[in-house]
């Protein structure tokens, strides 16, 4: 019997790989997906986006019983936390979603193999992969291979993960009890989300960030507002601060921090290192097919997502660009459509970014800092949630919407939101940016009342000093 040749082998079933596989199957390709973990869905579903949002939701409910319900006239006298139930709920959501992908694979007739994939030397047109699952080794051949192996937490040499004292986000999503004192190294999205979860559940949380602002890529005013808000919630936040060394002592971990004013010691029970992620290429066999990673550890690709080696493609966290699930999925769709000869494109200028803290932070397009640096002229309009009826009713009225637009035509360049439901509100901003819309388009769109989305319309009106309630 002649060897089976697949149209496409996908390595990695995260939001990049599984979406690419489904789209490719829809387009008629014969696809097999290889995934080394027990369940599909990658980091996003198993130990990233989804479990973190599940715990953010649970911890927010608890925090509300402590700090907000009384204002509504509701008294909750003995609210308590059952961490194992919280974790079980989180796992239930993961199981539902990862099982859902398995069903989608079945529906789309995608073959799915559990095992670790390694590229082996082969020619364009018949690329080969070795798959190891336990004792068994398989060899698969395909016309094209898509690498979607994602990323792993970046480990600092002086803070090696041990799963107990020095932990990464994966560990922080599965703690069995609330740590008394948690030190978070890294004031980016993951550090702030995980810091918020454990702070809401009662931990004393200190966040240290080397740079002058939290979420370095965020709009400066947004980052400042978030800093104030998190401090108000009780998180200790130290910017321009580095953790240089630590020692384990009887009363906890003694961390030596280098601040602008000199050295300072903080004693804690756990250190969560959330200083970024690096692309996962360990054991992938890149050398065998003549591939090398760039300085960031990722694989460079062309507009078809093809690497320097014909027939081998890369998307998601493994390829350049923001390490976000929706960026990976967009690339998965476009990769498959271009493989089928279509001229699809990812709009890299319109990729929203969200931080699910309280208040939430969401943005799309350019920040004021980026526009200034590029010498681009712009006008800005801002509207505060404190003047929005719905926000006041929800009791969550910190924050604002900022709209940046060109001075003449009012074409929108960027929208930045800090406030309630920013993660949902940003979709309207992304739509208007992706069709090249203007402040006029937002201003003439009738927004339901009372809604949080009215702040976007008012911020657009504010660009020309026409906001009604501002
Ligand atoms: P991954 O999701 O990393 O999947 C890659 C898969 O490939 C993995 O399952 C891995 O096991 C498999 N694999 C690797 N090597 C091999 C091999 N040799 N053989 C077989 N299989 C292999 N992003 C957002 O957009 N929104 C969020 O809210 C968000 N929250 C996050 C929270 C946390 C705590 C973390 C850690 C990340 C978060 N992210 C979020 C980032 C998001 O998870 C990633 O950007 C996304 O998962 C990348 O998708 P991917 O398909 O490139 O790779």
The number of strands is 22
Q: Report the biggest beta sheet as strand number plus sense, adding barrel if it closes.
A: 7 strands, mixed
**Arithmetic mean pLDDT:** 97
Using the CA coordinates, give the radius of gyration.
24 Å
Query: Class by helix and strand content?
Result: alpha/beta
Termini Cα gap: 75 Å
- Number of helical stretches of at least 4 residues: 13
Percent range for β-strand residues: 25-35%
Shape: globular
Q: Unreliable stretches, pLDDT < 50, 5 or more residues?
A: none
Query: Percent range for helical residues?
Result: 25-40%
Bound chemical compounds: flavin-adenine dinucleotide
How would you describe the overall organization of this protein?
The structure is a single chain. The chain is of the alpha/beta class and 470 residues long. The protein contains 13 helices and 22 strands. The protein has helices at residues 17-26, 42-47, 49-67, 83-107, 169-172, 189-200, 220-232, 325-339, 368-374, 389-394, 422-434, 439-443, 454-462, and strands at residues 5-11, 31-35, 111-114, 116-123, 126-133, 136-147, 151-153, 166-167, 181-185, 204-208, 236-238, 242-249, 252-259, 262-268, 270-273, 277-279, 312-314, 353-355, 360-365, 379-384, 400-405, 412-419. The strands form five sheets. Strands 1, 2, 3, 4, 5, 6 and 17 form a seven-stranded mixed beta sheet that branches. It has a five-stranded parallel beta sheet with strand order 8-15-9-10-11. Helix 1 packs parallel to helix 8. The longest helix is centred in the N-terminal third of the chain and has 25 residues, at 83-107. The termini are far apart. The model has no long low-confidence stretch (mean pLDDT 97). It binds flavin-adenine dinucleotide. Residues 11-17, 34-37, 42-44, 48-49, 52, 116-117, 148-151, 169, 190, 280, 283-284, 316-318, 323-326, 328 line the site of flavin-adenine dinucleotide.
């Amino acid at each position: 019997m002649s060897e089976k040749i697949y149209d496409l082998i996908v390595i990695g079933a995260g939001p990049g790989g599984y979406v690419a596989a489904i789209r490719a199957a829809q387009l008629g390709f014969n696809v097999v997906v290889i995934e080394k973990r027990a369940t599909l869905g990658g980091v996003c579903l198993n130990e990233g986006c989804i479990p973190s949002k599940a715990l953010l939701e649970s911890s927010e409910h608890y925090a509300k019983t402590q700090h907000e319900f009384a204002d509504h006239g509701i008294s909750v006298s003995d609210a308590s936390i059952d961490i194992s139930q919280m974790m079980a709920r989180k796992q239930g959501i993961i199981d539902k979603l990862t099982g859902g992908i398995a069903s989608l694979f079945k529906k789309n007739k995608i073959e799915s193999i559990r095992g670790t994939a390694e590229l082996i030397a082969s020619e364009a047109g018949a690329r080969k992969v070795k798959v190891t699952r336990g004792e068994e080794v398989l060899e698969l051949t395909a016309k094209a291979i898509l690498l979607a192996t994602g990323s792993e937490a970046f480990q600092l040499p002086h803070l090696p993960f041990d799963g107990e004292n020095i932990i990464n986000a994966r560990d922080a999503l599965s703690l069995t009890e609330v740590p008394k004192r948690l030190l978070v190294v890294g004031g980016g999205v993951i550090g702030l989300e995980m810091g918020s979860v454990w702070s809401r559940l009662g931990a004393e949380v200190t966040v240290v960030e080397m740079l002058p602002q939290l979420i370095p890529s965020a709009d400066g005013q947004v980052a400042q507002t978030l800093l104030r808000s998190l401090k108000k919630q009780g998180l200790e936040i130290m910017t321009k601060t580095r953790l240089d060394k630590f020692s384990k002592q009887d009363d906890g971990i003694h961390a030596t921090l280098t601040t602008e004013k000199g050295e300072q010691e903080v004693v804690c029970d756990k250190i969560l290192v959330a200083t970024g992620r690096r692309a996962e290429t360990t054991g992938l066999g890149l050398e065998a097919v003549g591939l090398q990673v760039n300085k960031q550890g990722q694989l460079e690709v062309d507009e078809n997502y093809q690497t320097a080696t014909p027939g081998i493609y890369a998307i998601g966290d493994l390829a350049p660009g923001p390490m976000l699930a929706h960026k990976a999925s967009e690339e998965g769709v476009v990769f498959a459509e271009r493989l089928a000869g279509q001229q699809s494109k990812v709009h890299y200028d319109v990729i929203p970014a969200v931080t699910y803290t309280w208040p939430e932070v969401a943005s799309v397009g350019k920040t004021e800092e980026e526009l200034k640096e590029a010498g681009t002229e712009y006008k800005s309009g801002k509207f505060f949630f404190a003047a929005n009826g719905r926000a006041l009713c929800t009791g969550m009225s910190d924050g604002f919407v900022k709209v940046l637009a060109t001075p003449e035509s009012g074409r929108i360049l960027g929208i930045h939101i800090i406030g309630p439901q920013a993660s949902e509100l940003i979709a309207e901003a992304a739509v208007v940016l992706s069709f090249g819309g203007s402040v006029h388009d937002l201003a003439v769109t009738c927004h339901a009342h009372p809604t949080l989305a009215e702040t976007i319309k008012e911020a657009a009106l504010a660009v020309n000093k026409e906001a009604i309630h501002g």
